[in-house]
């Protein structure tokens, strides 16, 4: 049988790959789209078997082609999609349908093969799947879930990590109306309701931090951020992210308590506690005693080189040299010198200094504590701070 018994123009007018084989899998009809995959012409394939035409790729023949044609020979349609490396065409994706054709006696005597090149579409689908998998991995690593709410339909959609954070199965009924009260205790309802009301009435994003409890009894601090989409002043949808910040939040609270305790202790002592960055020199912390003991305001203390400007002129050259030399090598050290107070009087101070070092062991900052020396007897080698004067300098 040859192509001349068919309307070749009609057969070749389609981009679909079309072929007809007998029950021995010999080609009876082939169009140009089909033969081009084999880099030949239709007439060259007539009479040859499928096995001969796929001899260049026996693995694909045995694993994919023959099993599907044999299934069609049992009387059922067989369809599959597959990536194939085609000489001269590169890697292509094909959707293939093998359909049995019965004669008047209901006996299978032919199989129609129809194929479509879906490379572009499948590449996009594969890329979407890779993106989805990457998103799922990213969500899991960041404890971050995503959600989408359609206002008109009232349907809310969750990503996989949303179910994981809430510790519920995928068949959980996500009801956007009840969801807030299902996972948040009564003392959280006012905060969450206010956040939701603001989200529904104003353009976002809107953020809230709340304490939720899962059906398994686990309490979690979560951050929710909602993004709204409006159409002609009407809210159409809300999409958002929810992140489990339990560990971070608890650490932040512990740090805040530690800082409050530290600040309380510092502010109750008579010492001036300070910390500076060196390049440029800037106070990152200065306790209030600096104001009460010297008369200068916090704004004045933040001026460039302010501490240097209030040093006694007789002390400044030696003190600045010692500061530079010690910080350069990263030593802990102490200094005793005079500063000029706001009222013009002088005050002796003892300054204990420790450098702050980076990973290269270089001083990038310093911190210390300044004590006021009530009595200074330099001639005897002692300061009012109770430490030999010569040991400081």
Describe it.
With 393 residues, the protein is of the alpha+beta class. The protein folds into 3 domains: 3-117, PAS domain (Beta-Lactamase); 142-248, Beta-Lactamase (2-Layer Sandwich), CATH 3.30.450; 269-392, Beta-Lactamase (2-Layer Sandwich). The protein is built from 15 helices and 17 strands. The strands form 4 sheets. A 5-stranded antiparallel β-sheet has the order 2-1-5-4-3, sandwiched between helices. Strands 7-6-10-9-8 form a 5-stranded antiparallel β-sheet, with helices on both faces. Strands 12-11-15-14-13 form a 5-stranded antiparallel β-sheet. Strand 8 (206-213) and strand 9 (219-231) form a beta hairpin. It starts with 7 loop residues before the first helix and ends with a helix.
Secondary-structure topology with pairs:
Layout: H1 8-11, E1 17-22, E2 27-30, H2 32-37, H3 42-45, H4 50-53, H5 58-72, E3 78-86, E4 90-102, E5 108-117, H6 119-142, E6 144-150, E7 155-158, H7 160-166, H8 179-183, H9 186-201, E8 206-213, E9 219-231, E10 234-244, H10 246-268, E11 272-278, E12 281-286, H11 289-294, H12 298-301, H13 306-309, H14 316-329, E13 333-340, E14 346-357, E15 363-372, E16 376-377, E17 382-383, H15 389-392
Antiparallel strand pairs: 1-2, 1-5, 3-4, 4-5, 6-7, 6-10, 8-9, 9-10, 11-12, 11-15, 13-14, 14-15, 16-17
Keywords:
single chain, 393 residues, 3 domains, five-stranded antiparallel beta sheet, 17 strands, elongated, disordered C terminus
Number of helices: 15
CATH topology-level name of the largest domain: Beta-Lactamase
Based on DSSP secondary structure assignment, what is the total number of beta strands? 17
How many angstroms does the end-to-end distance come to? 110 Å
Which percent band covers the strand fraction? 25-35%
CA radius of gyration is 40 Å
Report strand order across the widest sheet: 2-1-5-4-3
Mean pLDDT: 85
What is the assigned CATH homologous superfamily of the largest domain? PAS domain
Give the fraction of residues assigned to helices.
25-40%
Number of domains: 3
Q: Structural class of the secondary structure composition? A: alpha+beta
The CATH class of the largest domain is identified as Alpha Beta
Q: Which term fits the overall shape?
A: elongated
CATH architecture of the largest domain: 2-Layer Sandwich
């Amino acid at each position: 049988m040859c192509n001349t018994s068919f309307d070749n123009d009609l057969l070749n007018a389609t981009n679909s790959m079309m072929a007809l084989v007998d029950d021995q899998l010999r080609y009876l009809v082939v169009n140009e789209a089909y033969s081009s995959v084999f880099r030949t012409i239709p007439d060259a394939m007539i009479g040859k078997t499928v096995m001969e035409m796929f001899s260049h790729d026996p693995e694909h023949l045995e694993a994919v082609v023959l099993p599907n044609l044999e299934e069609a020979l049992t009387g059922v349609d067989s369809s599959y999609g597959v990536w194939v490396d085609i000489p001269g065409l590169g890697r292509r994706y094909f959707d293939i349908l093998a359909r049995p054709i019965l004669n008047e006696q209901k006996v299978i005597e032919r199989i129609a093969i129809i194929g479509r090149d879906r490379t572009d579409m499948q590449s996009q689908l594969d890329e979407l799947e890779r993106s989805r998998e990457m998103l799922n991995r990213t969500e899991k690593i960041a404890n971050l879930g995503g959600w989408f709410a359609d206002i008109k339909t009232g349907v809310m959609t969750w990503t996989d990590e949303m179910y994981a954070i809430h510790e519920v199965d995928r068949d959980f009924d996500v009801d956007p109306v009840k969801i807030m009260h299902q996972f948040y205790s009564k003392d959280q309802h006012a905060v969450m309701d206010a956040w939701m009301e603001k989200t529904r009435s104003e353009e976002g994003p809107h953020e809230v931090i709340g304490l939720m409890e899962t059906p398994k009894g686990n309490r979690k601090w979560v951050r929710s951020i909602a993004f709204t989409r409006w159409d002609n002043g009407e809210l159409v949808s809300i999409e958002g992210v929810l992140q489990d910040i339990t560990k971070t939040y608890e650490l932040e609270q512990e740090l805040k308590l530690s800082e409050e305790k530290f600040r309380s202790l510092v502010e109750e002592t008579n010492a001036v506690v300070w910390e500076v960055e060196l390049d440029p020199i800037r106070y990152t912390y200065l306790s209030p005693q600096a104001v009460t003991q010297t008369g200068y305001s916090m704004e004045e203390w933040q001026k460039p080189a302010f501490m240097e400007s209030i040093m006694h002129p007789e002390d400044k050259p030696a003190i600045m040299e010692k500061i530079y030399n010690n910080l350069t090598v990263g030593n802990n050290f102490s200094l005793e010198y005079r500063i000029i107070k706001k009222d013009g009087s002088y005050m002796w101070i003892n300054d204990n200094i420790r450098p702050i070092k980076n990973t290269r062991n270089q001083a990038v900052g310093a911190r210390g504590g300044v004590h006021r020396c009530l009595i200074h007897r330099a001639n005897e080698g002692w300061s009012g701070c109770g430490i030999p004067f010569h040991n400081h300098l």
